[in-house]
Specification:
About 0% of the residues lie in helices and about 50% in strands. By secondary structure, it is mainly beta.
């Protein structure tokens, strides 16, 4: 299994970025694909998730209304469109997938088995 995250960069507050996560080798699963982020000195936190089957999405309260997660099943890719970026969004962003059923615990990074290498998003004020 390989997850390849890309699209990070430096952007001014109020700007936008689009992150991509290309997945290969993932077994079929009803588990969501998920974005987490980790700021320097802080715990890894849930950002957004989307199920491969259907269009159900989940968002952290801190990004609701500003970030949009989407997918392309034919390309096995997941995207995170980030708008109205704030300095507090600065972090390394990771895409992740889990082997076992999450039973709703999609927000818990400890449940995930596969991780992309991370892509750095820096938002300047």
């Amino acid at each position: 299994v390989q997850l390849q995250a890309s699209g990070g960069g430096l952007v001014q507050a109020g700007g936008s970025l689009r992150l991509s996560c290309a997945a290969s080798g993932l077994p079929f699963s009803t588990n969501p694909m998920t974005w987490f982020r980790q700021a320097a000195g802080k715990e890894r936190e849930f950002v957004a998730a989307i199920r491969w089957v259907g269009d159900l999405t989940y968002y952290a309260d801190s990004v609701k209304g500003r970030f949009t997660i989407s997918k392309d099943n034919t390309e096995n890719a997941v995207y995170l469109q980030m708008t109205s970026l704030r300095p507090e969004d600065t972090a390394v962003y990771y895409c992740a997938a889990a082997k076992s059923p999450l039973y709703g615990r999609y927000y818990n990074h400890g449940e995930y088995d596969y991780w992309g290498q991370g892509t750095l998003v820096t938002v300047s004020s």
